[in-house]
User: Fold this.
Amino acid sequence: MKKKYCFTKLAFQLIILCFMPVSILLAQNETYDSIEIDFNSYGDNIHGWFYKAKGKEFSSTVILLHGYCGKDYLIFELAHVLAENGFNVLTFSYSGTWLSKGIWSPETSLNNVKSAIDFLKLDQTIEKFSMALK
Assistant:
């Protein structure tokens, strides 16, 4: 009976550890004044965040990409630092990861980057975020 109790306790602790990155993701993202955005990438709805440069009406924009699928929560702090230092930042989850629809692959990830650039060039995006892109 004691062995079963130890296994249950260990399983519960592992479940909590598995959900910690998600809670870190949500906590970091809410802390840093980001604006949630969505854009279309070859039929997939891509979910992301925009960080407005502090203290500037017009600013350069950085597209910040996470390197490994599912690890995008690691870049929110970097996005905040860049915004604090005068850069607009767009970051998003690739197709098929986190809240973005579709299927992840290297090809869809490259398509997502192209679509993010196209999204930033839209007149309504420039107007909404006051970016100097054109």
Remarks:
- The helical segments are 2-31, 76-84, 106-121, 123-129.
- Strands lie at 35-41, 44-51, 61-64, 88-92.
- The two ends are 69 Å apart (CA to CA).
- DSSP finds four helices and four strands in the chain.
